[in-house]
Amino acid sequence: MIDISSAIEAILFAAGESIPVARLSLVLGVDEKEINLRANELQEKYSREQRGMRILRLEDRLQMCSAPEFAPLITKALEQRKPPMLSQAALETLAIVAYFQPVTRAYIDQVRGVDSSYTVGMLAERGLIEVCGKLDVPGRPSVFRTTDVFLRTMGISELSQLPPLPDMTNGEGVEKLQNAIDEIQNAAVSGQMRISEVTEENGE
Quick check: 86 and 195 in contact, CB under 8 A? Predict the structure, then answer.
């Protein structure tokens, strides 16, 4: 009989990306509760034994990654340069998508007060946001949501762990959104956020 924990470990290692818990459940023939239990046991084992890998939970998906304390050594060994932080324009756009998703680019433009086409395209290119459908209205505009890469970058497992955003209906929306953006930026400064090059251009 196959060892479920070893099978989960092998699949996540081979995948190199996040795998839905439901998919693992189907393939291994056990319920999702069992998958989650075994994944937690593996994570605890890795931490206890100070292993070089970890298992991340990203909403309803699991992914294997390297332990964060080894990031400097990995960067040096693979000759990777330290990526720059997000620009203010990118932070604003990312916060809007994160808190109000799914959203259209027109909605982002309305909230920010400027054309965000470049920034939206850049965030999508970096894998932080993605198109998740189209509105059934004239023009069929695309709608965007955040991705597993966003969760991993922010160091959270699900969107509910984002800094709380107060009620946006009482006329203080801009100030409240800015406070939320500041919290995300503080996470970036503390080292939780490591984004592949996302830069501000054309004043966006």
Answer: yes
